[in-house]
Amino acid sequence: MAASSPTETLNPPSTLTNHLQTNGQDSSDKPTQQPSNIQSADLIEPSQKRKRVDTPEDNPEGPKSSLHPLWKTSLCSYFRRSNGSCSHGESCRYAHGEGELRQRADGTWDPTSERAKEMLKTENGERIEGTGESVLRENDEVMMTEAFAEESCSEPALAKCLVNLPMKWSSDNLRSFLGEQGILYKSAKKKKGMIVGFVSFENAEQVKSGVEEMDGKFVGNKKLKVADVTPRPFEKKNKVPLPPAYGTQQNLKPATASDSADVSESLSGFEDDDPTNDSLMPGSSDLKGRSVRNAVTPLAHLPYVDQLEHKKNTLVQMLKKLTRNARKACPNGVSLPEWILKSREIGGLPCNLEGILESPQVNGYRNKCEFSVGYSLQGKPTVGFLLGNFREGVTAVEEPVNCPNVSGIACKYAAIFQEFLQHSGLPIWNRLNNTGFWRQLTVREGRAPAKGTGIESTRADTVEVLLMVQVCTKGFDDELTNSELQRMAEAFSVGASADSSSLPLTALVLQDHQGISNAAPADCPLHSLPIPKAKSDSILEAANDVVEARIHDYISNLRFSISPTAFFQVNTLAAEKLYALAGDWASLGPDTLLFDICCGTGTIGLTLAHRVGMVVGIEMNASAVSDALRNAQINGIKNCRFICAKAEDVMGSLLKEYLNGPQKQDEISDSSGKIDEEIAKAEENDSSENTPGPEVSSGLELEYGERVLEFSDNGNQEFENQLQKRGTSESGNTPMHQFKNVVAIVDPPRVGLHPTVSNRELYIMRGVFYIQNFGFHIYT
Ligand SMILES: C[S@@+](CC[C@H](N)C(=O)[O-])C[C@H]1O[C@@H](n2cnc3c(N)ncnc32)[C@H](O)[C@@H]1O
């Protein structure tokens, strides 16, 4: 069971990345371009739609079969459009709603149905960059906003976009492919990491034969689609106009020769682009009806109860698939596990599904939003969310208007930053050629404690705001950079105080990231920026260093201190409900040892600490561990220990230690005096400028109430040695504290946790696990 975030799609994603998904309920959102393999009733021409009488082509088996072979395998568009009425009534061959829909003979579902979309999600899920959530799109839509064909292709009719190419292909691969197919063309371009490529032709004849040859051809197991290419609205002229932020390019100190190229070259995403290229996109009609609201909250058009129903159905499908796959994976001759056998009694589910917990707050509940910086479809520097998936060539960013999950405060800061960028002398990050300065704005909000009992606090209680601006300073002149950053800080300060409700602004942090994707590693340098006083030139002394740049939030009346990049549940109030339920399910008590696996800032373990004998949190991010230690201290919680390591590296040893090995009870609970030292040590190791991440993550164990063990990045063996050494030399003959109930909670599951722990299988799902004999058993 999961606390539900309204209007958001199910968890992966984080990774969820950037992906466009239509809401799947309203056919008006569908693009005009459809893949050739779609056979929805919606695709039949209006004139044909009334002909619901079976034809010989429709039903090759003729009168032999009482039901049409495609009976109810497509959704009825009349039924959908006319709000549930269809003149054919029950005799209609098409499904009246998802409930009636049948699977097709080839195992697929009507591609316009929710089931098909959800299956696609499961297979191709990616995180939305802006939200860290997973949304997926149907496979029949493509947008391109910043790809370039050759100069001579100013005639868009001579350019085509190929969709579904292997992501790893470069332009060379595409050219070889076209050569092998005997396709005549003028130029071919493809960027690694995308599934789209561009081909331009010499003449209409080449276009025609090229399209015939390519459309529907399989590359691997993917069917190629050919889409039209049209210039973006603001780039219809032959020359690409200068976006405002590039107008001062001459001010910049070039890092490489290519950085000093002219503007149109710097906008190009392809390694061999001509500087005078036009910007093209496939099928501008695809953009109709697209909105950032659909991209970020694809279920927002549904009432909340329907969103929950939709999510539950999705979960049911996924869980059934899990059972099916597990059954298939069981080798012949090996008896099926009990849960698979029992699944038959509960409709193929691997466990009972209780349902979804409602979020206490439905709108504006996110306490963290990551806004991308980029150009809108109209070419305007924009701070918001990507309108689609980079993988599919979409780089357009639109303002976060009407996104119900985004708070008003976050929207306001995005608008302030956007206004500042319109006049900045530094360029916006270009995702295609990986150049530019301004990349991302993260807004994190901290709440005041809940006021009294029985009154649920809301995000309106926001009293702290931390802004983290991601830039890439490489190659830019220090003086210009510094003055722009100062102007930016002023803009935030002035904008915050000018707001009618005077927005809180607690800390301003700069994240200097040079990587290709905006997902910065844990050790990415952070710098605190002073926040100037509004309407004055004086500079405040606040937020002098990154350690102090933090916000606070409350879960179950515990105060949590959160550093700029540490994970914290984005829906605080829903998290509170979720954790309490997890605690109930786990039948916690004084004899319970609770493992909080992937504990982040320690929220799960610390909120449940008063219900157990001991909490052991395991977390690979040193900064989060440092926060967890600090949070234990702030809340006076002593029966806990946090270990900075990859869970898969240490779980086996920890289980041995706690289930088999000797351990002194006083070692567990005595925390006096050591916590400050440990936090200091953690922060020292977390100091992003001088500490490499991996060594810290796997090499440092931070224990609340015990000494800090340090060892090299040598993984499990060394960790085990240390534990063994401690077990014999420090614990002496004192009888170990026996925990009768050992429980692990993990949220969310991680791929890294899947492999074996001490040669036992580890089944990880979001949830609560009983640990018995070194094995993990799903507790439902
Ligand atoms: C989404 S956060 C959840 C944190 C916490 N459970 C909560 O609900 O607030 C996931 C955390 O898992 C950590 N993590 C990811 N993979 C891990 C691994 N293999 N071992 C330990 N920690 C891991 C990440 O650093 C991150 O802090």
Automatic annotation (TrEMBL):
C3H1-type domain location: 70-99
Please give the superkingdom of this protein's source: Eukaryota
Short name of one Pfam family: RRM_1
Where are the coiled-coil regions? none
Instruction: Give residues annotated as binding S-adenosyl-L-methionine.
Output: Q569, E619, D747
Which stretches does the record call C3H1-type zinc fingers? 70-99
Q: Name one GO biological process term.
A: methylation
Cite the SMART domains for this sequence.
Answer: RRM, ZnF_C3H1
A GO molecular function assigned to this protein is: methyltransferase activity
Q: Which InterPro entries match?
A: Methyltranfer_dom, Nucleotide-bd_a/b_plait_sf, RBD_domain_sf, RRM_dom, SAM-dependent_MTases_sf, TRM2_met, U5_MeTrfase_fam, Znf_CCCH
User: Which UniProt keywords are given for this protein, alphabetically ordered?
Assistant: Metal-binding, Methyltransferase, S-adenosyl-L-methionine, Transferase, Zinc, Zinc-finger
Q: Where is the composition biased (Polar residues)?
A: 1-40, 247-267
**Disordered: where is this region?**
1-67, 234-290
Give the protein family: Belongs to the class I-like SAM-binding methyltransferase superfamily. RNA M5U methyltransferase family.
The entry's protein name is C3H1-type domain-containing protein
